[in-house]
Design brief:
mainly alpha
């Protein structure tokens, strides 16, 4: 018996088993560290536009990447503070006024719909010991969520800054984790992903600005109080597709209800009209350069990432979907096409024989 042929199957089986075990362990580790993974992705999302803007600065000024990133941040802060100085005071005051407008709208709604039973139920829950404990536990949970979100945002900002200062270091470091034969394709996928995220982010900024401006002007023409503040809210919420516009419409409708039901109806029609304009004109222009995200895919991705990762998954669902689409087009679809081509070639050879 030839000993050279004996151990090979056992060695191959052991290698496959070890690879499966390592893959399973890695998947479990990533799942348990999903919060950290989202923070890392958010940091990359911040680093992408910072690095791109720094590249534009370096084309104009003979400076290094670190100085270019610092100059980019300084320019952004100047523009931000300038905007605050121009319209920020009124915007902040109007957003603060929403805290007074919304309770007034709820009182007006109470005059049409009897909310007394709901208030009685809430009061009974708070007065009972179980209700009090559940309220306290809810407040404690909310506090931990807020602190966790704040720490996550700070980590993402810091991480994005460090990545933007030396993106090549992190890109090359990631590629070195791949086998040698996969590094070239891995670099192509990373470059395609970065280009898609840059285009998507630019499109989102344009969309957020247009939607926020149209909403503020429309609400002002309708005579809705705090129109500028509601426009700013609509612009920021536009970052989350479908869910964001619906959520931003709720306070606007509540404030309009304090005026009259007719005004509230016009506000609903305004938000629907702006979304139609966005879908008919803005999104096609944005997706001409970025990854084309079909509406159904976007909706289901928001739901899926929300189920998997909670609220952070909802916020980051669109850019995560962009990355997933790039990976599918760069890796999975060519792999399937190559396999199909090999199958056809074998079938042709078998037919000729």
């Amino acid at each position: 018996m030839d000993d050279r042929n004996g151990p090979l199957p056992h060695t191959s089986a052991f290698g496959v088993g070890l690879a499966l075990l390592a893959t399973t362990a890695g998947a479990l580790a990533l799942w348990n560290l999903q919060g950290l993974a989202l923070v890392v992705f958010a940091a990359i999302l911040i680093a992408v536009p910072l690095a791109a803007a720094a590249g534009l600065v370096r084309r104009v000024l003979p400076v290094g990447q670190t100085i270019a990133v610092i100059l980019t941040i300084v320019v952004f802060l100047v523009l931000f503070l300038g905007t605050i100085a121009a319209i920020g005071a009124r915007t902040i005051s109007e957003i603060a006024a929403l805290s007074a407008e919304i309770p007034a709208a709820i009182d007006r709604l109470d005059s049409w719909i009897d909310l007394g039973s709901i208030e009685t139920w809430i009061a009974a829950r708070v007065q009972s010991s179980d209700g009090a404990s559940s309220v306290l536990s809810g407040l404690s949970g909310m506090t931990s969520i807020v602190l966790g979100a704040a720490s996550g945002v700070l980590l993402a900002l810091a991480g994005g800054l460090f990545i933007a200062v030396d993106p090549a270091c992190y890109r090359d470091g990631f590629l070195r984790l791949l086998p040698q034969r996969f590094r070239s394709k891995g670099g192509q996928v990373l470059d395609a992903t970065g280009a898609a995220l840059r285009a998507w982010l630019l499109g989102q900024v344009v969309s957020m600005f247009v939607v926020g401006t149209l909403t503020g002007i429309g609400l002002w023409l309708l005579g809705v109080p705090t129109a500028i503040g509601l426009g700013v809210v609509a612009g920021f919420f536009e970052f989350v597709p479908y869910v964001g516009p619906i959520a931003s419409a709720v306070p606007a409708v509540l404030v309009a209800l304090a005026e009259s039901p007719t005004t509230a109806l016009w506000v609903v029609l305004l938000y629907v009209g702006i979304q139609q304009v966005e879908g008919a004109f803005l999104i096609p222009l944005i997706q001409r350069e970025a990854v084309n995200l079909p509406p159904a895919v976007t909706v289901f991705s928001v739901v899926a990432f929300g189920i998997l990762f909670g609220f952070p998954g909802v916020v980051l669902a669109a850019p995560l979907t962009v990355v997933a689409m790039v990976i599918l087009r760069q890796l999975w679809i060519p792999f399937i096409d190559a396999g199909r081509q090999r199958a056809w070639s074998r079938a042709s050879l078998a037919g000729e024989v």
